[in-house]
Structures are given as structure tokens and as C-alpha cells.
Predict the structure.
Amino acid sequence: MANLLFGLQESKARFILVRMNHPALTTWLEIDLSAIQNNYRELCRISRTKVAAVVKANAYGHGLIEVSQAVIRAGGEWLAVARFEEAARLRSNWILAPVLVMGYTPPEHVLEAAKENIRLTLFDRQTALQYSELTHTRGMKVKVHLKVNTGMNRLGISPEEVLDFTRWAASLPGLELEGIFTHFARADEPEVDTTDWQIRKFEEVLAGLHSAGLKPPLVHASNSAAVFNFPQAAYDMVRCGIALYGLHPSPETMLPGTFKPALTLKARITSIRDLAAGEGVGYNYRYRTTKTEKIATISIGYADGFRRVMGNKVLLHKKETRVVGSVCMDQCMISLDGLAGVQVGDEVVLIGKQGSLQRTAEDVAREWGTVNYEVVCGMADRLPRIFLYTDEGKG
Ligand SMILES: Cc1ncc(COP(=O)(O)O)c(C=O)c1O
């Protein structure tokens, strides 16, 4: 469905999308792009600096291209992704905003990066040399952001090496040092002192570069949680993912009420049956009826990102009900206990609101023993994404 709409003039697509019921779909995501635009504006207001929209992993499951377009329409300038292929996908969809690849990019991509104005992250000498040789022999330049490891211990030059490294990298032809950044390991835990310590390290690095006249123009450090907990680290730009989607950075770092979750996951009732007491349900009979029970099948399974764990819940007819038995690849079964008048085709909400009830990505994460990030990033590619503008006035 999303593909069907691809290529339609945006205003026309909006007209269709806001009015569309989608009876032909069995399992789908609804993405509220107005919510994402609202959250982007809130992040700008609160951080008081440039906000790079982190749209890696298919915009945390929400849809890379449509989310990026919505952020740009709301005034967004910068995008950030994890891998080169994600940046290339933006470019092949005519999204020309500055984009930073925050992970490692093999030198094989550097010429395309230079041509497409895709910014690469740099954190080792060998890669720097390879980028430099490949670009400058063709008279090109690639923009790079230096990554400093202030304590995440994942990627980055150690603080002691940054000055030397920067002096050396600045002398390499074919490279333009546009930015310098770090990443926080525990910014969502405001009570621990790790982030203060990381900020101090980063400040020392910046001061050293500044004295040597080597400080790259764009300095950035904060993720969503840091925007709220460590406003002193806003610098020239913040890189926000989870809050852009209206999801809480952690139980200790909850978003203000002005943020809105953007993702709703829905499926439909596909079959209803009455079972006698003692019947097994689904693979391995991990559920058995204890009385005469009405059981419905719904069109969602673990291949959609709905995990195969016991204890899942869903919303149906504005009530919460439970999944029974094992979640299958494409389907699962739910109890219709206490629910009257359910029919094939009725909508089931797995994440989102129905009536006055809501199942949040955070509820699901708690039940799955994980974080909301993993819940939304796990939404499968095969799920059609229906993009909605619920707030026409501000789009
Ligand atoms: C380097 C980097 N910056 C920023 C972000 C955005 O983080 P968040 O989604 O917590 O805002 C991420 C996400 O993992 C990241 O890896």
C-alpha cells in the first residue's frame, strides 16, 4: 500500500491517507507523521540547537523515506544513519539533506560518499589514508566527522590521541574535517556520573583542539536522553532517535507529555471458533482450554516482529485480551473471553490506542524483557506502513 502511494504528489497522497480505511490489509503499521513533526519541533525547542534526525534502522521501524521527508518538511536539516547503504537509499529517493553515517564505512564507498555529499565517521588512521588516497587522486573531497571515544568503548579515537590524529588528518588531501562527536553510554540514567565524566573528557579534547586552531566546525554529542538530562552538552547539534518517534528514552528518562508516539501496530480477526474444554491451541499445545472457550485467530506472527513469548496482550473491541498458545510465524490466537459480537475482519491493536485503552511500545518491551527501541526496530519490512497526517494545520 505504501508503495502504491509512492510517487503520488505528496498533497494528494495526504488527502487519500487521512481518509483511508484499509480493509484490504490484514496486518499493518500506521505511522503518524504529524506526531513525528511535533516531536521534532519539541526537540528543537528543548535542545535550542540543531537536531539531527536519527533515521537508521528504517527510522526505528517507522519508514526511512517518509520519516525523513516529514522531518525535512518540518524544517529539519540533518539526518543520521548507521550504515552507508541507508544514506545511499536516502539519496536514491532524492533526499539531499546532509546525512552522517555514524558507523564504519568501507573505503569502497568513499567515492560515492564524496559525490553524494554523504558525511562519513572517521576513527582510525588506516581508513583515513584509504579515504584520502581514493578521493584526492580523483580531485574529490569527502566530509568526515571524527568520532571520539569518551567512554562508550564502541567506536572512536581515544581522547589522548585526538589532537595528534586531527593534526595528521587535517593535512591529508581529499578529507574535509567537518565535525567531531562522541556518544554517551548512560545518558538515560541521570543519577550516575558517567555522562558528566564523558562530557568533561570531551570538553578537554575540544579545548585542546581549539588552542591548536584545529577544532572542526560541527560539534555534537547528545542522544535523546542527553537532551533532557544533560542540556550543557547540546553543542552545535544533537542526534535524536527514540524521542523523535515519541518513545521514552528509558524508565528513568520519560518524555514530557508534549511528545506523541507515532507508531500503531494493527492486525485483524481472521477466524473464530468455539472449543470444548481440554482442547490444545497452536503449536505444541502450549495453551489448553479449561472450559468451553471462544478463540480467535489474528493475522500477526513473529515474522512481523510480534515475539514468540507467552503472555502477549492485544486490544480488541476497546478491551484488553490475551494471546493464547505460541505465536506462530504469521498468526496467533487470542481469547475472546468476555468479548461479545467479535467478527472476522475486526481490528486488533497490538501497539497503540483503541478507545480509552493504550498498549505502548514500553508496555510490550516490559513484557518481552527488552527496551522499546528493540520493539519498534523489530517491525518487519513486510508490514505495510500507512502514513498519516493527523494534524493538517501544521504539516
Ligand atoms: C551514535 C548515535 N547517536 C545517536 C543515537 C540516537 O540515540 P537515541 O535513539 O537514544 O536518541 C544513536 C542511537 O543508537 C547512536 O548510535
